[in-house]
Amino acid sequence: MLPDTEIVYTKAANANEFKDKNNLLKVRELNDLHHAKDAYINIVVGNVYNTKFNHNAAVFFRNNSIDSYNFNKLYESDIPGAWRVAQKADVLATFQKNTCKVVRMTVNGHGALFDVNPVVAGKNADLVPLKKHGAIADTSRYGGYNSAKTAYFVLVRSAGKAGKQLLSLDQWPLWMEKQPGGRPEAKLNYFSQKLTNPQICIDRIKQNTLLCVNGSYAWLKGKTGNAISLCNANQLFLDGENVQTLKLISNYMRDRKTFNNPQMPANEKITAENNLRLYDALVQKLSSSLYAGLAICGQVPFLKEKRPVFASLSVEKQCCVLWEVLRLMQCNVGLSDFTLLGGVANAGVTTINKFIQDKNIKLIFQSPTGYYRTVVDVGRFLK
Predict the structure, then answer these.
(1) Total of domains in the chain
(2) With 90 as the cut, is the pLDDT of residue 210 above it?
(3) Using CA atoms, how far apart are residues 97 and 305, in angstroms rounded to an integer?
(4) Which residue range is the domain that position 157 belongs to?
(5) Residue 125 and residue 195 in one domain
(6) 362 phi and psi angles, rounded to 5 deg
(7) Which of 80, 280, 295, 317 has its CA 20 to 30 A from that of 152?
(8) Residue 372 maps to a domain
(9) The domain boundary residue, chosen from 64, 96, 128
(10) Does some domain include residue 75?
(11) What is the pLDDT at residue 319?
(12) Stretch 53-80: mean pLDDT, rounded?
């Protein structure tokens, strides 16, 4: 497609070697920025190797002894067109910046329409009828199919009690989307079964659309009953010392899983003092306004109360707890197990009620690069 483009292949080992020599830490579990930072380092390192050795280093060594070049000193001298020693500080500073834009692809639901095994009547209020027409279409008597998959969401205005207006993020199910013809009328008929005088304000709000909920960012994921499930979209940043501690814990937790050994002793570099400092830093982050609009901030009082319990645990158990606290603030859907602190095993559910007229919510429609966006304040649809 682009015949004048030169493709430069890089090896992860070369980029990792550069990062190790310059103490550029990568903790996948901290945030999503490591993807962009890895790409940047691969550009720098790939350009150096390609300029110095051509596409294949063997070309260089055909005319030079295999011992003629010390790769450990590759970045200690200028390479015209690819590397200047004086720029090294700028490269390292660029890597440390946390200004990368994170965007997720918005998608429509696809695949299975619902669970294939029918369930009895009363399982929930959103069963899919066994048949489109006839007596058997009555889910209140004959049951139906459960777990209808979402095609996308629709912002609907409807009438509430005492003349109050309601705004709701409602699911448009995939099985209805697949029905032939009459879709606009079908939508109003569908929502009329649950809402009074519904009007569609915004159609086709895809999954992974970015929301701002009372100042906190989240991605729109799915719906269960009247609950809308969200995924935290606030990237977590920590200072250098805490990142180093988290890197050691990440390696330890990885090895525990790799060798299937829950009793594995922790690295001697992991200390209770550093763990406690990281615990306080994570709780402080979770207490900030960044997470105030999400349900996960409700874990803050519990974590503050259990600080003495955390301090009394072994270093290994502290690592496990810190891993679960970190899970609260990761940008994916997951639950935290706080049983080691005397808490529940499934903490950190992030949901909001589908009726959002009383919340300060903005829909943010982003371009793939994140440089362009359209922000819609849903409150403007309330007359």
Answers:
(1) 3
(2) yes
(3) 34
(4) 118-212
(5) yes
(6) -125, 140
(7) 295
(8) no
(9) 96
(10) yes
(11) 97
(12) 80
